[in-house]
Amino acid sequence: MVSSALFSFTYNQTKPWAVPEKNAKMANPVKADADAIKVGKEMWTKHCVSCHGKTGAGDGTKAAQLETPMEDMSAASVQGQSDGELYYKISEGRDEMPSFKKKIPEAEDIWSVVNYIRTLKK
Fold first, then answer.
1. Is pLDDT at 111 greater than 60 in this prediction?
2. Quick one: average pLDDT of 26-38?
3. What is the pLDDT of residue 64?
C-alpha cells in the first residue's frame, strides 16, 4: 500500500510521488529542539535555498531554471506529509530533486532538515 500523501514538495500535484508505506510511517528520531532546528537550518541554507528559497516559497535563485514548479514548503500539501515522507523525498530524490544521501550522509542531519521544514509552516 502506498501512502495517501503522494505529492512531492518539489513538484506540483500533477506528478504524484509515491512513498513506500514503511518509509512514510517512519518516526523522526530527532527531537525538534533548538539544536536540531539550527542544524536543519544550516543544512537547508547549504543545500536547499538555491531552489526552495530562504522561506521555502520556491523562489530560490535556481528555481526559474527548473522545468517543474516549486511547491511552497509552508503549504498544507507539504506540511500535511509525514516526517517519514519528507525524509524519504530528501534522501532519495527524484527527477530534478536530487538525492541528498551523499551530500547529507548523516541521517540525523536529514531528520533535522525535516524538523526545520516544519518551522516554515504559516
1. yes
2. 98
3. 92
CB atoms within 10 A of CB 40: 24
71's grid cell: 511547491
Residue 110 and residue 112: Cα distance in Å, rounded? 5
Asked whether residue 6 carries a pLDDT value surpassing 90, the answer given is: no
Residue 114 has pLDDT above 50, yes or no: yes
52 to each of 15, 25, 27, 31, 40, how far by Cα in Å? 18, 25, 24, 24, 14
Whole-model pTM: value is 0.86
SS (H, E, C) the chain: CECCCCECCCCCCCCECCCEHHHHCCCCCCCCCHHHHHHHHHHHHHHCHHHHCCCCCCCCCCHHHCCCCCCCCCCHHHHCCCHHHHHHHHHHCECCECCCCCCCCCHHHHHHHHHHHHCCCC
Residues whose CB is less than 8 angstroms from the CB of residue 54 and which lie 6 or more positions away in sequence, other chains included: 45, 60
Q: How far is 70 from 109, CA to CA, in rounded Å?
A: 22
> If you ran DSSP here, which 8-state letter would residue 69 be given?
P
